[in-house]
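Appendix B.2, paired examples.
Example (i):
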Amino acid sequence: MTSATQPARMPGLSLRRTEFTWRQWGDWWWLGALLLVGIVIRLWLFRGFMGSDDVIYATRGLEVLAGLWSPSDYNGALRYGINLPIAAAVGLLGRSEGALAAWGLICSLGEIAVIYVYALRIWGTRVAVSASLVLATIPQHIDSATNITADAPFAALLTLSMVLLHFGVSSGKAVLLVGAGLAVGFAGWIKPEAAIVFSIPFGILALAFTANRRKILWLVFGAAAAASLNLMLFTWAFADPFYYAHVLARQIKAGSANPASWQSYGANFYFRLLFLDGRTLWLAPMLAVLGAWFAVHAQGRAQRRTGLFTVLWAIFLLVFFSFFVYSLSPLRLIPKQTNYAIIFAAPIAVLAGVALERM
């Protein structure tokens, strides 16, 4: 790497110069090419309706567009982080399957771009290209981008929150920390119960990597602001800010006696999915294990710090979404599904990109 492209050093953070050299323009051309590849693959393998929650999201989105805010006894119908964008997309693009799936596609591509910037700032272009290409070609990531479900938007917001958290604690910038909190809060608009579980590893990483603990208040402020807007929406629509919580509580009570056949509660579900079943994340988890070693043993302090952050990001997600106790009576761990594994894709892709760069 030449002096013209050598990242400038900051405490705990490696940032490129603000001047746009020809090489830096090349970096963004790479991003454009990767997004184009991602779009082509996703449109080629467009999945569309499956006949599950996607029908509910589409119906609710169309109802919102028509000004109907109907009550429901199913929490999936109350996920306005997916219903509102669907309504907006249909309003802009017209009624079509493509418009209904547009939000998931946008979020999938956005997550690829976020990971590219994350890797570019720390490890450089080769890792950024490798990580983004891995993420863009992960089977589950492609599938979630072209069906009308909540998985791609939810995963993208979790990834955005972690990336903003990293750069926020490294630079001390309040706006990045507020953005990280907002991303977590808006993830709660899609899956509040999963967002609460995610907030545990998110909070642990924030405490571990933040030198000035008072800055964590910016995270709390951002998350609380987004959550408050959701509560206000439920108050306006159903005269009950905790309407979703009441619906979910009734579902959990009903499901305790008759657990859903399509869900697993086993602690080893995601471990088997990642390392024994290549249909979901392909070879990326295997590469990520190797990349984790390279990441935490990098030469530069900023790279080691980010490497450790990324490794813990992946491990904490896997641990908490595998072993979190969802019910005490009967004792049951958090429910798991194959499509939920999309939340692991981003940190795994970054670590896989590190491994590919070293090969």
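Example (ii):
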Amino acid sequence: MSYVVEDSIIQLGKETHHKEDLNDIHRYVIPTKRCDQLDIMHDKHKVIVDDNEMGMSILRRTPYNLLIYPALNIWFSRSQKSITFMSGTKIEYLEELVKFDSFIKGKLLEVIRSFENMFLGSFAYHFEMEYKNIFDGMSSTMQQKTGKHNVGTQMTDNVIQLIPMWEQFFSNESVVTINDEIGLWNTLSTEKFLKPNSQIEGLYLDKINSKRFRPSEIKTIKRKFSTQRVRQQIREDLINFCGKSDTSWNLQVGSDNFSHMMNIIRIFRNSSSHPRFILDTKVPLDNNSSIFLHDSKAISENAIHLKNFIYILPYFVSDETVDLFRYEVKKRLLYMSHTKKVPNKHIQRLEKQLGIYIFDS
């Protein structure tokens, strides 16, 4: 079978060495019919398909490429570089695995969102209060010259409007993402809140909103606005939110690891919103991080897995949220076992992957 492009021949299923217009084409993979996909699953991957009609129905609901997903080898046999599933794996079990992964993603988003709400609320509160306290400490003459205003801004009709920072984060028009949240935190890494405007001499910009400050404010704000104090207050709110003692939280996470933990949260949050699997998600481990010193596998691989992320949930969300998450996961595993008849050996692989066991205390 061949395809002609500008008098050049590409053999389908073979590599092409054409170097001009076809640089991006390395190999053409012939698409297979669903009925043939069932044969491949059975012959190549040792998946049991008892009923072809039922198998076709599953393939209409769930893409073949998700059912046979090389990176997700939880149910593969243990032989080296195996591409076959462990004995007894039926196509309907693989569909349940895809559903289970989607379930985990949805539950993780609920958990992470509770952290984001707390974090942004705390950020907005302490940032606004820091500015208000400085304003309250100004002389009445300076206050009159400065005029009260909020730290938050929004762009409306190409005009910057001052609004409470809370509204900037939580209004229906908010476009703040978790990447922005991490950026906001990192901007507080030094004491200097204001920076000179490189384009206009004599004017300053704040590091959060790039908003111009009145000249009457600059000296006072530069001298008294403490971003380190805001960071500390936010951390204290987080420790209180998750119900940990200062000693326990600092021992497991600590101030030095907080930015790294935020990045871990970001990656797992984004993975929870992506069509691919989350069960096999890995995050590079910061060499300077001490968050996962308890896990020898994480250290040896220099990467953390989903069960490591679940392990640190109690350090950025409440115990109640974690307990509900674990409870819902156990219920789902029981449902797969009892209602969908997924074998115990398959369930046990999932328990190990998550670090959550149906009958643990």
